[in-house]
Amino acid sequence: RWVLSLECKGSRNFMSALRRAVEIDFKDKDKHKSQGLYLLTTGIPDQETHTISAYVAEACGGFDLQLHVCLFSVTKGTDSSGIIPARYANPRETASAFKEIVQAANGRFHWFGEAGIFESDDITSIISEMEKAKNYSQKCAFLVESLKQRS
Predict the structure, then answer these.
(1) Which of 90, 105, 129, 137 is the most buried (most CB within 10 A)?
(2) What is the value of pTM for the model shown?
(3) Residue 106: is it exposed, middle or buried by C-beta count within 10 angstroms (0-12/13-18/19+)?
(4) How many CB atoms lie under 10 A from the CB of residue 39?
(5) Mean pLDDT of 2-12
């Protein structure tokens, strides 16, 4: 229930938030086998992608920490706050930047909007697994058919 009382606020100062999460909130990181951070965002961070990627690779490399990003693309004209971000990128550029950051952190990237899912590492993995299963099934069917013809 406490989640319902939360209000959106903050900035796109990704580095500040990430440093806080990694250097302060994960003090006992050595006691845990695996941890993950989830970034829920609607836009590109203020900092340059290569700077964030380098920090993320270093921060996540020391222990099993993964950064996962959920990017929500808001339809144009729905932002009523009137706040202009310090750095602007179109949705495709924003997705590309977060994909690079996530790769540096061995995490997963998910991009969705009001129209549905645009891209998701989890869905891509599932589809890949299904393709492998389909190919294996076809090979098995071909093998069975070949054995029937020999008999």
Answers:
(1) 105
(2) 0.71
(3) middle
(4) 19
(5) 64
